[in-house]
Design brief:
Number of strands: 0
CATH class: Mainly Alpha
Keywords: Membrane, Transmembrane, Transmembrane helix
Distance between the termini: 28 Å
Largest sheet: none
Protein name: Membrane protein YkvI
Shape: globular
CATH topology: Hydantoin permease
Helix content: over 70%
Radius of gyration: 19 Å
Number of helices: 14
Organism: Desulforamulus reducens (strain ATCC BAA-1160 / DSM 100696 / MI-1) (Desulfotomaculum reducens)
Structural class: mainly alpha
Order of helices and strands: HHHHHHHHHHHHHH
Length: 351
C-alpha cells in the first residue's frame, strides 16, 4: 500500500500524466471523432484497447525511469533504442517538443480570439506568464499546476459529455458510417491514437525517475491510463448520441455543449485554453529537463528561453501548424511505442 506521504505525489503524477494527453485535440472532440466515433459502437472497443495501452505504457515508463534513475527522456531513449537510434530519436524529440510548444501557444491565442473575441496576443501572453511561473518553480511547479488544472478540465469534459448524453440519449443503432476512422480498423486506430499521444508523456514522466518509488510510479501509470479511458468513453458515447450531426463541425464538443446550453460556450473556450496551456507547460518542462535534468538555474534558463524563441511560431495559423507537424509526431510516436512494447520484454528474457 502507498503511505500518506506518497499519496499526494501519486495524485500529482496521475494528474500530470492525464494532463499531458488531454490537449486541444482531445478537448475539442475532433481527435476522438476521427479515432473512435467514426467506428460506431466498435469505437468503444478501441477506447478499451487505448485505455489498456495508456495504463500499461504509463506504468512501464515510470517503472523504467525509476530503475534508470533518469532525469530526462534521453536516458530512457538510449535504454530502449540503443546509443545511435536513441540519439536520433532524442534530436527528433527535441524538435517535436519545440514544435508542440509553438502549436499550443498559437492555439491559446486562437481560442481567445475566436471564442471570446479578445486579442490574440492576450491569450499567448497569459499562457507565457503561466508557463514562466511553473518553470520558475521547477518539477514542484509542474506537479502543482497539474493537480489544480487537470481535474478542472477533466471534470469539464466529463460534465459536457454527461449533459449531452442526458439531453439526447444514445441511439439504439448507429447508421452505417461511410467515412472510415484513422487506420481503417478500430484496433489499429486505437494503437495509432496512443502512439500520437505518448511522446510528451514520455518526455515528462521520464524526468520523475529520481523523485518517486517504483510502486508509486506503477500505480500512477495504471490509474492515469484508466482515468483517460473513462474520459474517452464518455466523449465517445456523447459523440455517438449526436451522430451524424457532429460530422459537420470542426469542434464537436463545442457543438454538443451549445446543444445543451449556450452558457457553456465560454466555459468550453476556457476548457480548450487550459488544455492547450497544460500541454504547453509539459512541452517546456520536457525541453528544459532535457538540457538541465538537475533543475536549478539552468533548467529555468532553458525553459524560459525556449518559450521566447518559439514566440514567432505562435503567430502562425494554428491549423497550418497542426497539419504540418502532427504527422511527424505520429510516426515518431509509433517508433517509441514499438520500442516500449518489445525492448523491455527482450531484455527481461535475456536476464
Amino acid at each position: 500500500m502507498i503511505n500518506r506521504a506518497n499519496l499526494g505525489l501519486l495524485v500529482s503524477l496521475v494528474a500530470t500524466y492525464i494532463g499531458t494527453i488531454i490537449g486541444a485535440g482531445f478537448a475539442s472532440g475532433q481527435e476522438i471523432l476521427q479515432f473512435f466515433i467514426l467506428f460506431g459502437y466498435k469505437g468503444l472497443l478501441g477506447v478499451i484497447a487505448a485505455a489498456g495501452l495508456f495504463a500499461y505504457l504509463g506504468a512501464l515508463v515510470l517503472h523504467l525511469s525509476v530503475r534508470l534513475r533518469s532525469g530526462n527522456y534521453q536516458e530512457l531513449l538510449c535504454y530502449l533504442l540503443g546509443p545511435w537510434a536513441g540519439k536520433f530519436m532524442d534530436i527528433l524529440s527535441v524538435f517535436m517538443l519545440v514544435g508542440g510548444l509553438g502549436i499550443m501557444l498559437s492555439g491559446t491565442g486562437a481560442v481567445v480570439q475566436e471564442y471570446l473575441g479578445l486579442p490574440q496576443w492576450l491569450g499567448i501572453a497569459l499562457a507565457l506568464l503561466a508557463i514562466f511561473v511553473v518553470i520558475f518553480h521547477g518539477l514542484d511547479g509542474l506537479l502543482t499546476i497539474n493537480v489544480i488544472l487537470v481535474p478542472l478540465k477533466l471534470a469539464a469534459v466529463c460534465l459536457i459529455a454527461s449533459l449531452a448524453l442526458a439531453s439526447h440519449g444514445l441511439p439504439a443503432e448507429i447508421p452505417y458510417i461511410n467515412q472510415k476512422g484513422v487506420g481503417g480498423h478500430w484496433l489499429l486506430s486505437s494503437v495509432l491514437y496512443v502512439s500520437c499521444n505518448m511522446i510528451v508523456p514520455v518526455a515528462v514522466l521520464s524526468t520523475m525517475g529520481r523523485s518517486i518509488t517504483i510502486r508509486t510510479g506503477v500505480y500512477a501509470g495504471v490509474i492515469g491510463g484508466l482515468g483517460l479511458g473513462v474520459a474517452l468513453a464518455m466523449v465517445t458515447l456523447a459523440g455517438l448520441a449526436f451522430y451524424p450531426a457532429i460530422l459537420n463541425y470542426e469542434v464537436p464538443m463545442l457543438y454538443m455543449a451549445s446543444c445543451v446550453s449556450k452558457v457553456l460556450r465560454p466555459v468550453f473556450a476556457l476548457l480548450i485554453w487550459i488544455a492547450m496551456l497544460t500541454t504547453a507547460i509539459a512541452d517546456a518542462h520536457g525541453f528544459a529537463s532535457r538540457f538541465a535534468p538537475e533543475g536549478g538555474r539552468r533548467y529555468r534558463f532553458f525553459g524560459i528561453a525556449i518559450c521566447l524563441l518559439v514566440l514567432p511560431l505562435a503567430y502562425f495559423d494554428f491549423s497550418f501548424l497542426v497539419r504540418l507537424l502532427y504527422p511527424l509526431f505520429g510516426y515518431a510516436g509509433l517508433i517509441l511505442i514499438i520500442a516500449l512494447l518489445t525492448v523491455p520484454i527482450f531484455k527481461f528474457r535475456r536476464r
